[in-house]
Amino acid sequence: MTITVTNQKPAVLDALHTISCTGDYDPMPAIQQTLIDPLLEPLNPSVPASITDAQGADLTGDIPDLVLSCLGDTLNVTSEQTVKELLGQTLINFDQGTPLPVAELFAVQAGHQNKMPAPSPRVLYTTQADVLPAAKALLAGTGDEGAFFASVAYTFHPDTLGFWFRSSAAFDDFKIWLSQQTQTMASALPPATTKLLNDFTALSLKGLTESLLVRKDDSDANDEHSFARVLVHMLMNYVEQQRAQASRQNTALDTGVLPFTLGELFCPRSLVLVNVEAHARATSAKITGEWNLINQSLASPVKVVSNTSLSKLTSLPRAAARAATMGARQQPGQPGSRSAQVTFRKQPPSKLDLFEDITRVLRRMGKVNRSQNIFRTTKATYLKANRRDPDDFNKPGRITSVQFMPDLHIYVDTSGSISEENYQEAVMMLIRIAKRLNINLYFNSFSHFLSQEVMLRTENKSTAQIWKEFRRIPKVSGGTEYTQIWQYINSSRKRRRRLSLVVTDFDWEPPSTRQDHPKNLYYAPCSAMDWSFMVDLAKRYADSMKHIDPSIRQKLLGLIV
User: Compositional bias (Polar residues) at which positions (predicted)?
Assistant: First the structure.
């Protein structure tokens, strides 16, 4: 969509808002004031700003709906492109070509303002090179809070709402102020909220972060004077007062907002309090481990929020890490740099094409200590006597070595959009590939839920025998959901080391928030389907996955040339 903006004063968005903690919970006025009104401020006050599409239709009234459509559970590619074009014309600091979703709008604005290019396969942000220097500069008073925010957001992309404090002493000052405010509101606060606020004042921010779960979902804890509403309201009010005080006294700020995503800014399910001084003095490994732990906790499907005691975001993974006597570290994969250059096939791939793609990936993954995928090689050598004529030193012997390639784990889509014919052709294709590799397969079928894992022994069996075993495996049916596969793979070290292949029609939209996509997970198309339609779905899926895995196009086996 082509958008034309006239008589609009280029704006800088401010994440600070003060949604009331009384009455019904309605974030729309705050969204209007924070996001929409600055985009419509006229350059000439006597004439309203105008935003129109290519046909000249007025889009002014549609802007709130367009922005909200970018904050759903799935990524709306069309709305994303439209809103990015709008923001590129109406904001002073915004790059409409950014691969980051609109939900990370404030991170993009802060990065652009500090001349930081958006993260991409060729632009990687690290703790050592970016977060540590920004924290030290902010602590010293020579750096901008936006640079620190952008460095953390570009490096870790947490889906949460954060507040930074210069030091633990600055956080203690906030707790004193909060206690004073709580006393003036004591008669209006429910006992549960009062207890949780008292527990909050007992927290210490001497470490890198302190993180809390405040809601189970967007509809939870929205009652008048609930702990979630009161705490966020107080934090925002305190930041506003600190800004005014710093402006009057011409001093450096001691606290600020870290609006990592728009959804969490207006209805946070979690809060992360950040100690800048601790970040400035910590090692890069410790900072990386802390934020990886936060992201791991945010991605966990199990979240317990108590109404009677504070629920810490990272308590479960920290307990699991202590029990396992090992730190919970994630190894961030480096995405490939050729994703934007791929060309999709004009014809369906042959079985040989798919076999070559799988073999190429297996070789790239390297060898493992033990697996079902046994690879034997034989070579001639004079270090061993010839078996038939051991006394003749001029005849070489043979040495057979055994190596193990990564296991192959297949996830076949059996949702409602996959017919029995599609399923049979996909399975037969996999059987032929397995026979050619002479390996056993791990197998799951999936729809909106995942079947039990089965190992199919295909080695030294006929195609008919293998198909007969496949038919005995129960199939699941229903909708389509990929994230359950991602979580299933990530939950096991053994499964993470396998080559996982999803055979699907790509009829699924990824979530709008960042997820941990397995490094060794690839995708292949179903057979017996309209190829042009399949390619369109695969392109849509690849476009929607840019914010989760920029190298996703390189993982579409059988689809790209």
Answer: 331-344
